[in-house]
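Tutorial handout. Part one gives the primary structure; part two gives the three-dimensional structure as tokens.
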Amino acid sequence: MAASSQLGAFTLDDFEARSGSATSIIRTIAGLYIRHESTPVARGKVLDLAGAAGVSAPAAQTAVSRLIDKSILENTDESRLRVPEAAQAMFARGNRRIFTPRQMRDEDQWCLAAYSLPESMRPVRHQLRKHFGQLGGGLAAAGLWIFPAYLHEEVLQILTALQVRAHATVFIAQTHDFPSTPAEAAKAWWDLDRLEALHHSFLAHAEQLPEADTDEMAYRNYVLMIDAWRTLPYLDPGLPPMMLPEHWPGTSSRRRFAELSEALEHRASHFASRLLRA
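Part two.
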């Protein structure tokens, strides 16, 4: 993928949108179903999918327009919608993070990215910090970020997309010598309080899902569950046990996500397929 396309895919990531909002839910529907359609989808069908997930028609209309403005959806002829190329790349990358969340072991390797950018590149420096943070990186020191080694390729993609690869050195390392304890290092490098709150929020949302006694309800539960979950596997890198507080809620939320996915995904997909082809 060219650098401009790579940057587009990373720029389309949105971790500020409020989960449960009409725009966030339809974005989730686009990633789960619309992007897999071989031909553009009638706008009315997109609204039907949104309605089945509990979004009112007026709110859905507004949200679709917003997603078109954000280049997540694209208009074609005859009031049909499709997912454009950059958004396709963003969703494909998201699939790997969302549906296969990883948890490091204490002995796993790390990826360190060190860079120094001149003052003339201050705006790029800001973009680099933003994208590294959204990738799940920890800021160990000025110009030094740390990631699980499994994010190595995505680190390189961001550096390449922002055209700063020549200003950065990337290491893969395993041996560490923390200035204090691993847990204290993690608390200094990542915002663990925020991550903990996000995991508790997801667990609370999962507990409030009603019984899925029909395929339509399974679909609604699945879409809303994914919408509540999808930013977590980005922001939480899956740190090893030695770096996490006791009773870390990420373990429970990953397990609950897997349980709900197994119970709902097939029925939800079946319902969405029937609705799209009705």
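Part three, for discussion. The first helix runs from residue 3 to 11. The chain is about 55% helix and 10% strand.
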